[in-house]
TrEMBL record, chain C:
It comes from Vreelandella boliviensis LC1. The chain crosses the membrane at residues 21-44, 56-84, 91-117, 129-149, 161-181, 201-221. It is found in: Cell inner membrane; Membrane. The gene is ccmC. Its main location: membrane. Required for the export of heme to the periplasm for the biogenesis of c-type cytochromes. Belongs to the CcmC/CycZ/HelC family. It holds the Pfam family Cytochrom_C_asm. The lineage of its organism: Bacteria, Pseudomonadati, Pseudomonadota, Gammaproteobacteria, Oceanospirillales. This is Heme exporter protein C.
From TrEMBL, chain D:
GO terms for biological process: cytochrome c biosynthetic process; cytochrome complex assembly; heme transport. It is a single-pass membrane protein. This is Heme exporter protein D. Required for the export of heme to the periplasm for the biogenesis of c-type cytochromes. Keywords: Cell inner membrane, Cell membrane, Cytochrome c-type biogenesis, Membrane, Transmembrane, Transmembrane helix, Transport. The chain crosses the membrane at residues 20-37. PANTHER family: HEME EXPORTER PROTEIN D.
TrEMBL record, chains E, F:
This is Cytochrome c biosis ATP-binding export protein CcmA. The lineage of its organism: Bacteria, Pseudomonadati, Pseudomonadota, Gammaproteobacteria, Oceanospirillales. NCBIfam families: ccmA (TIGR01189), PRK13538.1 (NF010061). SUPFAM superfamilies: P-loop containing nucleoside triphosphate hydrolases. It comes from Vreelandella boliviensis LC1. Residues 5-213 form the ABC transporter domain. One of its GO terms (biological process) is cytochrome complex assembly.
Amino acid sequence: MIAVKATLVRDLTLLLRRRGEVLNPLVFFALVITLFPIAISPDPELLAVIAPGLLWVAALLAALLSLDSLFRSDYDDGSLEQLLLAPQPLAALSLAKVAVHWLLTGLPLALMAPVLGIMLALPAGSYAILALSLALGTASLSLIGAIGAALTVGLARGGVLLSLLVLPLYIPVLIFGAGAVQAAILGDGVAAHLAILGALLAASLMLAPWAIAASLRISING
Amino acid sequence: MIAVKATLVRDLTLLLRRRGEVLNPLVFFALVITLFPIAISPDPELLAVIAPGLLWVAALLAALLSLDSLFRSDYDDGSLEQLLLAPQPLAALSLAKVAVHWLLTGLPLALMAPVLGIMLALPAGSYAILALSLALGTASLSLIGAIGAALTVGLARGGVLLSLLVLPLYIPVLIFGAGAVQAAILGDGVAAHLAILGALLAASLMLAPWAIAASLRISING
Amino acid sequence: MWAFIHKLGSPKWFYTISAKLQPWFWAAAVLLLVVGSLWGLAFAPADYQQGNSFRIIYVHVPAAFLAQSIFISMAVSGLVFMVWKIKVADMAAAVMAPLGAAMTFVALFSGAVWGVPTWGTWWMWDARLTSMLILLFLYLGVIALRGAFTSRDSASRAASVLAMVGVINIPIIKYSVDWWYTLHQPASFTLTSRPAMPTEMWLPLVIMVLGFYSFFIALTLMRTRSEILRREANKRWVQDLVKGQVEETR
Amino acid sequence: MAFASFSEFLAMGGHAPYVWSAWGVTALLLLATVWHARAEQRLLLKGLKRRARRENSARGSAQ
Amino acid sequence: MSLCLQARQLACERDDRWLFQGLDLDIRSGEIVRIEGPNGSGKTSLLKILSGQLSDYQGELFWNGAAMNDAREHFLANLLYLGHAPGIKSGLSPLENLAWYQALSGESNEESSGANGHEEQRLDALERVGLAGFEDVPAGQLSAGQQRRVALARLTLTPRALWVLDEPFTAIDRHGVADLERQLVAHAQSGGCVLVTTHHELTASPLLRRIALG
Amino acid sequence: MSLCLQARQLACERDDRWLFQGLDLDIRSGEIVRIEGPNGSGKTSLLKILSGQLSDYQGELFWNGAAMNDAREHFLANLLYLGHAPGIKSGLSPLENLAWYQALSGESNEESSGANGHEEQRLDALERVGLAGFEDVPAGQLSAGQQRRVALARLTLTPRALWVLDEPFTAIDRHGVADLERQLVAHAQSGGCVLVTTHHELTASPLLRRIALG
Ligand code: HEM
Ligand SMILES: Nc1ncnc2c1ncn2[C@@H]1O[C@H](COP(=O)(O)OP(=O)(O)OP(=O)(O)O)[C@@H](O)[C@H]1O
Ligand SMILES: Nc1ncnc2c1ncn2[C@@H]1O[C@H](COP(=O)(O)OP(=O)(O)OP(=O)(O)O)[C@@H](O)[C@H]1O
Ligand SMILES: [Mg+2]
Ligand SMILES: [Mg+2]
């Protein structure tokens, strides 16, 4: 347990030390959202229709891109070797790393999304659901994405390969996440969507740590 | 000149040796494009309206993400130091590296875009312009992006910072690129758009190599 | 000539001369801002169309002007630093960036608030708003890049390069966004097509703009002085200066 | 004077929330930058003085 | 407590070339075992196999008489491995780096008067490797040798019986090398065991045993 | 051709600590200059300043009497620098790595009977550093010492007068070290000059001069 806590603290310190870097996924999120009206059309009526999808895709990409660095620096400087040789269960240690990732990426993304919703003329009344669905969803995304990050950490150009591995797995989360927001706009019940998002999170919490641990072992071996 | 050619050949060999990695940006492009119908709506009429924008944004992101590795491995293994100490002009050598990047990323993206256009119900008649505008545009993107890649190569979590630096600079290219496709759909003249894309490319060709060289020197220093 | 430029760039010289200039700019800033605010808020007549919401102009426009000017000053300082290796220029650039970002934010925020009574929406993808938003991102990029380096020298030079690259791009971005906007949108509301302002409305605006610029100069002088102390803490002249102050207080 | 009374001034002809929030945020940010600059300066000088005093006393005790 | 790492009929093939074949090893408490051989003879590969990082080998491993697969947990709790890469985060200070390793090794806080005692230990360990004064500098700003010294500080920080060290003398200066050699001998004398590769000449010691590869 | 690298009143400050101050250096043809000092004394920093990679210093540099800024091109054309990192691409074979360095050094093809002659040279250079048989293995699969040997092959491949070597003996085995030492002496004797840092003891030679830092 101490080792898990220490890993949590260490990763938090590392990330908070460079406060700018915590902001990066947020800024990326905002930037991508800015690109769409410029590339598509500034017409608010059109934007309102596509806003839930755009927001979810952009948040998903922001979370995805920040994943690449999750294990990379540990791998490069040899800390990962040491993590594997620690007498603690690797699954718990990697869960700590994923938790830090979500706290500093997923959660802020969820909190920031409503502001960007305003800019995309998202209809009123769906803002709370947008934030909630993102908070739940990004937790699953972090867990699932960490498996991909662990598998690609030993490879030179991991970044794009990671997206390739992970994006297909993200699709269920995306469907129910964006679906929840659209349901909120249409006034339908959102409970079902949120329940499924919760179930997805529970399932990934149970399974992902083991997959991450196994993937890390594979990466170190090669 | 020999050194420039050799750098071209070396980088091409390195990338082609891992043929999988050349495909990565393409697969990323395709995956992001499939996310949109899932997140927004499968309605072809709606998709047709937003297709040019979505295609351009997705291609831009794919090009952007592959940039991060442009100088990174050279930095890590010390080759970059050696590149700087070569008696050749650094601007020319870095131009060779950027050219390889475009050949293996921008050009394939441009060639592949029409296929994805079909999936998004892009109206007929704009396919050639889509490919042409992407081919011209991604060349500018590679050049501008390389400045950001050079500035962030020495930094631990360069990936997302790179996006932050580079995306605002990409906006003119995006406007005229997506604009060209939209003009083609509406049957307006596309010559003006393409001419401006060409002008942007010419300007970046003139200025970017020097900025890249200066940035590389800075990164090696710190 | 060279000697003069380098003397100008010497931190010590700058530290002494700025001590003399600083109070004047602070005084001007306070005077202009107070007069301009009172005039603009209480005495200028209400707009015949927008009523009193129009009074937002007195913070909105100065902030928007300043946001753009600061980026240009930052790039010029960067150029001076890169070409003549004048460190004071870089220190000034470093302290300008956060203020510039703040001003950009003020322009965005006041504009967004103003949009509610006039346009009925917080935000729309108007050309000027869009380019202002991009300017904010450019500022954030420069600040983040400077913070990402551990070596101060590299951080300074990287930020200078980025500021210069950015400043070349600002007109290009503005031009293309303008062009894009006219392409897309019927000009339902534009910022520029308002009737010419009467003098009673226009004069306080000029005063506010001047006040904002004085504030910018005063604050930059002050923070550059702090930055000088921070970076030159080990230099002889700083230690002598501090010792002098310590002895005085005894 | 464009307003008849102070309460009218505060009401801003019904636009109070907009005018005052815009002005308020601006004033707040300007004041915050000044406050930050002053705090920064004071902290720096304090540190430098402490150091100078320590060096003084170190030299004093060495003699 | 006597420890014993055994290998039987160990063989490793890389690219159709046998690095070693039929290797029998017995490494016991109180020994310093040095693996020798020219560049590319398979020293690093052997250490990785013995420490359980490389599973691409033939033959069997035993820890205290039990097959390695069954005894892995006990084995890891006794192992300290330092590889070619120092395992030091360049964004963290030496003190923070060591704090993580200390926690990773699973030391409970009760053992030595709470968290404060731990901090003392870390400061001591850093002082012993000559890094007093550099405790709070980001490790990325240290010189090559200083970074390796941070890694070496782990030797005194977390008490482990089996040290597996791959070229520990890299980038270390003359004084540092002498100190480290003394430390290895002391560890072996106090019942630990050391498995080391190096191209440096080690001063002869009755505890030293050589195994030549290639 | 006599070469001369001079430094006058060189000083370098890192984090408010002076690594060296008022350093005067004269490095001439026919000399092996060894920079000595404990870990963190500034050897690497000095080499980086002298080779023009670090611009964060005070003092002046001269190359053959001319200020370094004016003579940079001629200086670079005569310089071979090997740093802590070997500069070898792990995805390319040793042969391909050397081909790039050869082209980077700006050798024109006419000089030696076309591209074929170049290939011969590369094979020779690899053989001389003991890598015959590993020419086409991806460098990432070589051992630590073998990777450094690929970098060392550049010494014989591209004829440069001034060698600046930062810990060239890292990870090299005993034979390799002796070979390399002989090579350094031969280079100095034939009119080149060598600037080297190492914690290895170099065999005494009349050409060797020491400069102590820290
Ligand atoms: C987020 C929203 C807004 C942003 C980012 C914004 C941005 C700007 C900028 C950058 C300028 C300076 C232009 C220059 O340099 O010439 C400006 C000027 C101005 N803005 Fe806004 N604006 C916003 C909303 C509004 C609104 C809602 C109104 C009122 C209807 C308004 C009225 C004006 C006026 C009257 C000027 C001065 C006219 C001129 O100099 O051309 N703005 N704005
Ligand atoms: N990028 C940097 N930023 C700040 N300080 C640095 C940086 N690089 C090195 N230093 C500091 O400069 C000092 C000298 O480092 P340098 O690498 O020159 O030492 P060295 O003599 O080569 O040591 P070694 O024998 O360990 O290689 C170190 O104390 C280190 O802390
Ligand atoms: N990942 C790998 N894949 C394939 N072959 C490898 C790999 N790693 C090492 N080898 C091969 O195994 C051989 C032994 O490598 P190893 O690193 O064990 O040598 P070493 O004895 O440690 O050498 P050094 O003294 O240079 O460190 C080398 O010839 C190398 O080519
Ligand atoms: Mg080895
Ligand atoms: Mg060194």
